[in-house]
């Protein structure tokens, strides 16, 4: 394996914005919805440099991994939720124009 020849897993992301404008008594009401990560895909963002995956190490034996600082077990280290993209987020809002 050569330096800098690895590839990260592909990432996919679909966001959606929908809005509808209404006129009521001289006011302009704008109702909108924002949906981030519409398909709720779990993209790997912080990957291990040696394996190219977020939840994989080259170490085969868990006992030979050494001390993990900041977390209790190697399994917690491997399943760190900050290594993945944020789950689906839905935001709904209302704007008022004069």
Spell out the blueprint of helices and strands.
Blueprint lengths: L15 E9 L2 E10 L37 H5 L10 E9 L1
Antiparallel strand pairs: 1-2, 2-3
Structural description of this entry:
This protein is mainly beta and 98 residues long. The protein has one domain (16-97). It has one helix and three strands, in the order E-E-H-E. It has one helix at residues 74-78, and strands spanning 16-24, 27-36, 89-97. Strands 1-2-3 form a three-stranded antiparallel sheet, with no helix packed on it. A hairpin with a 2-residue loop joins strand 1 and strand 2 (27-36). The N and C termini lie far apart (63 Å). The mean pLDDT is 81.
**Number of separate helices:** 1
Please tell me the overall pLDDT.
81
Alpha carbon gap, first and last residue: 63 Å
**What's the helix-strand series?**
EEHE
Q: Beta-strand percentage? A: 25-35%
Structural class label: mainly beta
Largest sheet: 3 strands, antiparallel
- Low-pLDDT stretches: none
The quaternary state of the protein chains shown equals: single chain
CA-based gyration radius: 22 Å
Helix proportion range? under 10%
Strands in their spatial order, largest beta sheet: 1-2-3
List how many beta strands DSSP finds: 3
Shape from CA axes? elongated
Count the domains: 1
Entry keywords:
98 residues, 1 helix, 3-stranded antiparallel β-sheet
Short description:
This protein is mostly beta strands and 98 residues long.
């Amino acid at each position: 394996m050569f330096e800098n020849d690895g590839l990260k897993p592909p990432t996919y992301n679909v966001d959606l914005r929908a809005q509808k404008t209404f006129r009521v008594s001289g006011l302009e009401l704008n109702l909108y919805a924002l949906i981030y990560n519409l398909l709720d895909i779990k993209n790997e963002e912080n990957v291990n440099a040696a394996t190219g995956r977020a939840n994989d190490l080259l170490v085969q034996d868990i006992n030979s991994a050494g001390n993990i600082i900041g977390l209790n077990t190697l399994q917690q280290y491997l399943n760190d939720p900050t290594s993945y993209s944020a789950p689906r987020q839905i935001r709904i809002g209302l704007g008022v124009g004069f």
